[in-house]
Every structure is written in C-alpha cells, then in structure tokens.
Write a structure and sequence with these properties.
Chitinase A, domain 3; two-stranded antiparallel sheet; 6 strands; 57% helix
C-alpha cells in the first residue's frame, strides 16, 4: 500500500498482528491498522502544510535523538564493561549504612504458629511446646503437627509481615500491631479450632525493615548507584580526552 510516497508493506502488517487471532479477528485488526496508518499520514501531511516554522520541532527531534542515542550507548557500555558483581556483603553493608532508607511500613514478626481441632489430644503439652524455642520442644511440636495440625508454621528463623499472621487468627482488635507486640503468647479458639501463636521477635512500623524484605530494593539501589558512578567516570574521561586533544573551542563575544 502507498500513500503520497509512503509505503505500508505486508511484512509490517504481519509484525504488528497479535498472535493467536482467528481469521475474522485478523481481518478486523488489519482493517483498523491500515485505517490508522492512513489517517496518521494524512494528519502528518496536513500538519506539515500548516505549520510554517518547523525549527522548534526540528530542535526537539534533534535533542530527542541525541538523548536516545546516548542512552542506548550507555546501556551498551554498562552491559559490556560494568561486570563487577554485587556480593551479599555489598548488599548487607549498604543496608546497614542506610538504615534510615529502609523503614518498615507495617510490623514484621518471627515466631511459630499452630492450628489444631478442638478435640486434639495433649493440649497441655502443646501449650508448653509452642511457647518454647528449645529444640526438643520444637521437634515435639513438629511431630505432633504431622498428625493433628490443620496449619503449622515455624518462622523463628525468618521475618513475616504482620498481615500474614492476621490472616491466620480469628482475632479482631482495633490495633493489631500493638496487641501482638504486647501479647507474645496467644491462645485462641473458635467453634472448631485452637490457635496458638508465639512471637519471638517484633519489628515496629518505622523501624528498619528486615533485610530479607528490603533486599530487592537494596540491590536495585546499589546497582543504580554503581551505574551512575560508572557513567560519571566515562563522561569525565571523555571530557578530559577532549580537553587534551584540544577538541573544545570556546568563542568569546
């Protein structure tokens, strides 16, 4: 197809065509695509006829092209030359030194949770085991949970957001964060189940977020910082080389 010297080829249409369309849908898409292509060209031609001074547009296009080419080159350099890997120590150091950046928006907790039917045996022992962090108690509770628990979660070794914990409990409090911070051993029951929760550690809102939760953001920020520092060095080197080669000319009025 041709319009005023511009061409729309079959392969252009094929590239734009979404995968998986039926024959009828493909025909409908093609008609709309061709119609839009024609209308855009006609509008462009009309605009060119009615805008007398294109200097501002040409300047914007030139600036945009310069930015696009420079950005593409920067990404190429970063992929090719910024090969230094970010280690776990790097991430931990950055997380530790920038504690004020990684603030928890809601509480996080460590602990243990078990949910069992009301008629479950050995309730007194369960009450002792869930409160203890001794290995023997944990092993007893784990063995018990295999036979009797509807849900068992051991998270003394990892942080969980408080929202996860609230989903497990039939508990409604005006301020659940404060309640769980003050009540580290919780026993509840409803018409069907017993619920036992032991909170061993607690991070308040506004305190430093757990590392495992903050880690993806830490990595992104550290990677971005290194990329910026790398490109600053590249541009500084280019500038110094241009000065050395007398490529920069200053014209004074």
């Amino acid at each position: 197809m041709e319009l005023n010297g511009d061409f729309l080829y079959q392969e252009d249409l094929q590239r734009a065509l979404p995968q998986g369309l039926t024959i009828d849908d493909s025909l409908t898409f093609a008609k709309h695509y061709i119609r839009n292509w024609i209308e855009d060209l006609l509008l462009f031609d009309k605009a060119q006829q009615n805008i007398e001074d294109n200097a501002e547009i040409e300047n914007r296009v030139r600036n945009y092209r310069q930015s696009l080419v420079a950005h593409t080159y920067q990404q190429m350099l970063i992929r090719q030359q910024l090969t230094e890997e970010i280690t776990e120590k790097d991430l931990l150091d950055y997380y530790t030194k920038n504690a004020e950046v990684f603030k928890a928006e809601s509480p996080w907790v460590k602990g243990l949770f078990i949910k069992i039917p009301l008629a479950s045996p050995k309730l007194n022992q369960v009450r002792q085991w869930y409160k203890s962090e001794r290995q023997e108690s944990i092993e007893n509770l784990e063995k018990y949970s295999l036979q009797h628990a509807v849900k068992y979660e051991y998270f003394h070794d990892r942080w969980l957001p408080i929202s996860d914990i609230l989903d497990w409990l039939p508990l409604k409090e005006p301020n659940m964060g404060t309640f769980l911070e003050k009540n580290r051993h919780i026993e509840l029951k409803d018409s069907v189940f017993w619920y036992f929760l032991n909170i061993s550690e607690y991070i308040r809102s506004g305190e430093q977020e757990p590392y495992e939760a903050a880690r993806p953001r830490v990595k992104d920020m550290l990677l971005n910082m290194r990329q910026v520092e790398f490109m600053d060095r590249v541009k500084a080197d280019l500038y110094q080389q241009a000065v050395k080669d007398n490529e920069i000319k200053y014209f004074m009025n």
